[in-house]
Design the sequence.
């Protein structure tokens, strides 16, 4: 016989089991909510104005290079560090098949070492690089893939007219144009100091890049650690994009930047844009603490701040209209 007690099966009468512990409850009020919205709006509007003014303070000059190979322009002085970009219109680097057409194990030396895979087999790892994986005779392509074999290979030389009879080439640096992680983490050459022997048995002439260009690319310009190649392999999200090509070496006549005067762009036309009905241009630009000449970030902050203030004023109007009124459960509120 089991005698039932009044507390049989109930939890103990403690603060924990009876859920009577003290807790902090957020007490929201109309004043606090409106203050938060207004403060957020002020911050976003202020940041937007600052970013727009910062972008406007930078200098950017764009010169369309196609279909011309020699362009002469005259512009005002550009003070400070000057960067040269190439800009493409209508080139879709964001296509899914294009993004996947590469071999990271071929480009990265530290990965096969960590996995104890021979370097020679990784150089020949081209299975994910279709349609640029192997040549017609079955020879692996290095670098393989659609991204590497559509490399932008125009040569752009900027000249300055010092006087009526003397033209000097503006000194531009190829180094220092890549992200640090790309240069020293994501791309590595084979450990052999002789690139010719390291890539023996591979073909390096494919796609739109000429055989001479690819030979220079390997033996003179650093192989997988070529700065132009690394910049190109970081794909763009939109069909219109610009990529860093060179940066000004501030020496001799260009210590303060680019002086005012006449300049000539000599472009070796190697990258055709008529195939994809696009355009290309050369951009000279300076940078500020917030980046380049793009207004996108500043406009995004400004629009966000304006929408936040609009929502705050709407809620404040409703609050003032209904303030002081008491409603029963059966009342219907008409706004």
Sequence:
């Amino acid at each position: 016989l089991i005698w039932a007690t009044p507390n049989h099966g109930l939890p103990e009468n403690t603060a924990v089991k009876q859920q009577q512990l003290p807790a902090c409850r957020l007490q929201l009020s109309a004043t606090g909510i409106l203050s938060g919205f207004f403060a957020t709006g002020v911050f976003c509007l202020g940041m937007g104005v600052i970013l727009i003014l910062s972008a406007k303070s930078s200098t950017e000059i764009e010169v369309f290079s196609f279909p011309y190979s020699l362009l002469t322009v005259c512009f005002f002085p550009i003070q400070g560090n000057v960067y040269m970009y190439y800009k493409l219109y209508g080139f879709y680097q964001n296509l899914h098949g294009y993004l996947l057409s590469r071999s990271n194990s071929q480009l990265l030396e530290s990965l096969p070492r960590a996995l104890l895979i021979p370097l020679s087999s990784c150089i020949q790892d081209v299975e994910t690089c279709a349609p640029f994986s192997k040549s017609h005779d079955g020879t692996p392509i290095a670098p393989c893939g659609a991204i590497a074999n559509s490399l932008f290979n125009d040569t752009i030389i900027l000249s300055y007219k010092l006087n009526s009879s003397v033209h000097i080439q503006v000194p531009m640096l190829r180094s220092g144009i890549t992200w640090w992680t790309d240069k020293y983490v994501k791309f590595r050459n084979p450990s052999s100091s002789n690139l010719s022997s390291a890539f023996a048995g591979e073909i390096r002439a494919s796609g739109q890049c000429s055989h001479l260009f690819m030979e220079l690319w390997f033996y003179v310009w650093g192989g997988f650690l070529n700065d132009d190649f690394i910049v190109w392999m970081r794909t763009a999200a939109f069909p219109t994009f610009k990529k860093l090509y060179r940066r000004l070496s501030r020496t001799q006549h260009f210590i303060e930047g680019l002086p005012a005067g006449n300049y000539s762009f000599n472009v070796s036309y190697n990258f055709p844009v008529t195939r994809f009905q696009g355009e290309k241009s050369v951009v000279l630009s300076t940078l500020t603490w917030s980046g380049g000449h793009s207004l996108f970030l500043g406009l995004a902050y400004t629009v966000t701040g304006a929408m936040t203030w609009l929502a705050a004023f709407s809620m404040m109007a409703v609050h003032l209209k209904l303030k002081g009124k008491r409603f029963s459960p059966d009342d219907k509120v008409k706004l």
